[in-house]
User: Fold Aryl-alcohol dehydrogenase from Marinobacter vinifirmus.
Amino acid sequence: MEIKAAVTHRQGEAFKLEPVQLADPALGEIRVRIVATGVCHTDAVARDLGIAPFPIVLGHEGAGVVDAVGEGVTDLKPGDHVVLSFAHCGGCGNCLTGHPTVCDTFNDLNFGGAMDDGSHRLSQGDQELATFFGQSSFGTYAVVSARNAVKVDPEVDLALLGPLGCGIQTGAGTVLNRLKPDFGSSIVVYGCGAVGLSAVMAARIAGCQHIVAVDVHDSRLELARELGATHAFNGKTTDVVEEVRKLTGGGSHFAVETTGVPQVVKQSLNALRPLGTCAIVGVTPEVTLDVHNDLMAEGKSMIGVIEGDSVPRVFIPQLIAYFKAGQFPFDKLVRYYEFDQIDQAFEDSASGKTIKPILKIG
Assistant:
C-alpha cells in the first residue's frame, strides 16, 4: 500500500514528506495506522550522525490502531490500540529473563535498518528504505513485529501515549525497574528533559523523601517541582554536590544522570553517599574517572540503563494506570505538532522550547 512518510535520504538532510510503498505484514507482524508519534533525541542522532543506514524512515515512539495482522499473530487484532516500543528477539537469555533492553541482537534489530528476517517493508520504486527501531513511526502506517506492540487501554487518548514506548519509560523505568529506591530514600535527577522529569515522577511514586532536580533552566526546575521534586537546583548558580550533601546528610542514595555531559556525570558520582548508585541513561562521550576515589573507596556503583530496563508489555500499562490515577501526569511534558511541522518539532526540541514534541499523523 502507499503511505506518506518522512524520509531521510542522506545523513544530516532534512525530512521530506513523500509517498512510500509499505509491504503487507509477514509472519508474526502487524500493520498499524499511526495516530501519533513522539519526537526523541535519538531520532535526531540517527539523522545527523548516521547510526543507521540511509535512506531511512525514522520515528520510534509510535502509537496507533492495528489495521491488519500477519500469519501467526494471535494476541492482537484489528482495532486494538497499541503503543510501539523497541525491537527485541524474544528468545535470547536476556529477553527470556525479563531484560529485553539488552537483547543479544538489540543493536541489529533497532539500528540495522531491516526487519527480524533481514528483509525490508518500506520502498520507493526499486530503492529499499531502512526501518528504525523496528517501526519507522514517521509514517501514516507501519509494519512491525507483534512483539514490539503493547495493547493499551482504549479509553486513554492514543495520541498522548507514543512517548511511553521510549523516552518516558526510560526515565520512569530507570527508577522503578532498575534502581528500585526504598521508601524514604533520596535521589537526584540530573537534567529535566522528558527522561529526567519522568524519573522525578517515578521517584515520587516510589516514595523517595528527597527528590532533587538539577537543570540549568529555571522554567524546567519549576515544572520539576510541580511534578514531585522536593528541591530544585540550578547547576549554573549552585554548588550541587555541596547542597545535596547538606540536604541529605552526606549524599544521595541514588542518582539518575540524563545529560550525557562528562562534568555532570562526575558531579552525580561525587554527590552520592557511600554505597550510593548512579544510573547513566544519557548518551555520554568519553569520561575519565578516578576509579579508586570516585567509586571503589566508598563502595559506589555506576550502572548503564537502556529503555528503563523495561518489559514494555508489563511496564507501559503500569505507567498508564499511574497516569489515570493522577500519579504520573506526563501529559504536562508534551506539545502537539501536525505531521508537516516535523522540522519545527525537532527545532523546538533541540532548543528546549518543547520538552516532548508529539506529531499528530492520522
Summary: DSSP finds twelve helices and 18 strands in the chain. The domain at 171-306 is CATH 3.40.50.720 (Rossmann fold). The first strand starts at residue 2 and ends at 8.
